[in-house]
Amino acid sequence: MRRTSCYQAHFVTAVAALCVAMAPPTTVAANPNAGEIRVERYLESVRHDPNLVLAFLREMPKGGDLHNHLSGAIYAETLIDWATERDACVDPKTLYLSLQPCGMEKSTVPVKTAYSDPVLYRSMVDAFSMRNWQLSGQSGHDHFFDSFDKFNAATHGNTGRMLAETAVRAASQGEVYQELMLTPGGPEFAAVVQKSPWNENNDLVNLRETMLANGMANAVEAAIKEIDEAEAERNKILRCGSAQADPGCEVVQRYLFQVLRGMPKQVVFAQMLSGFETAMKDQRFVGLNLVMPEDYYIPMRDFPLQMRMLQYLHGVYPTVHITLHAGELVEGLVPPEGLRSHIRDSIYIGHAERIGHGVDVMNETRPADLMRDMAQRKIMVEICLTSNDVILGVRGPHHPLHAYLRAGVPVSLATDDEGVARSDMTHEYLKGVEEQDLTYSQLKRMARTSLELAFIPGDSLWSDSSAFTLVKACTTDRGSAKPSTGCQRLLDGSQKARLQWKLEQQFRDFEAKQWSAAPERGRTVQ
After folding, report:
1. pTM to 2 decimals?
2. Strand partners, 256
């Protein structure tokens, strides 16, 4: 049941929009929580008007997006443009892109044909995304995962442009930080795999040594070079460092090495090893993650082995962070036994510090005990509401978000694949308000949590991340526009604290605006 509040407005008039007059930011005076209370009151007053809620949430600071697949973050329209630039072809029936000469293998036509063929154009947009997926004849799950192979030819070699597009969108959503999942790899990596076959004794120690001897260092250097070139292209596109720099230049982008868990054993282990080795050599790679559908045959069959791989490699590289997709499953998608332990094993065996999705948590063995331990150990769940809705059909009261909140498990909202899903962070927050009945204070906590539990180096601004109590050096700085000398010393030495301070400044300015409760018909809410 939706909670009631004297500030909820059942009939919001057009005049309400005028109540959001944007006064210059001022410091909140005596009560440091006064601004938060006033903003909470405003959100409650407009909760039943999705247009006003959307406008409010678009301006709200959102911290970081910690679960974002780079290739899935690009909108279909952009993919069509990039494919056209490459003189790519498309099969009008299957809608797969190809870089082969048009008409050679199949009845393909130039992608540019879509610009003058509305039926082909809209069909490509639908095929590359979840738009109109209900008309595809597929489940949301299948349509989603099938889309990537269709547009893959457009994303290949465009990492820099993808970074630019996601940075621009993040800045427009009020984000300051992203952890983007990608899989660097080229001929150097392929050579390592080719020279290092799987040994049936499952001897991971020997396999690691073999891969290191067979050129893994070259694969790592190639991955780093790929990111160097991509960031250079991003910075050029966004004019970073110039007077005309795009706001996207201010978004800090870091990378999670994406391991394709649906691949053969030696490929999975090689990608894991490459991820760990790369993270040790380049701080821009802040950790790694396993991707591809959790319910596919190989990920289900090899799940115990893959957890053992992570357990072994974590012992070799204990400082490298791990976040894992786990529990992106529902009843019927896999046998009941497949729902019992993926989250637990990802944490206890795979050493995951964060969990992506975690949708099937209530199907885990002893879920209450599991969530209690997650809360105590601060194992965060990256909540992807749109993704869970369109892929798994899990939404509203069926989503375990509130189970996590009741258990005290830290959570934050994330986009997952905003381009394919046709969403963005603002609309994730909107789903949080409309479908999960989240309050402003809960959303604010999630934004703060996203930075607190991000894999950012440095000391935290918070001495207690549960109550968000400032560290001693910054105790007198709450609500201040300029840090004290002691607090500045902390900021100078910690990238994490600097981003957290930036978020707090954004909240200070956001809450200082003249948010007035919208009037109900017949009376004014004070």
Report:
1. 0.91
2. 181, 287
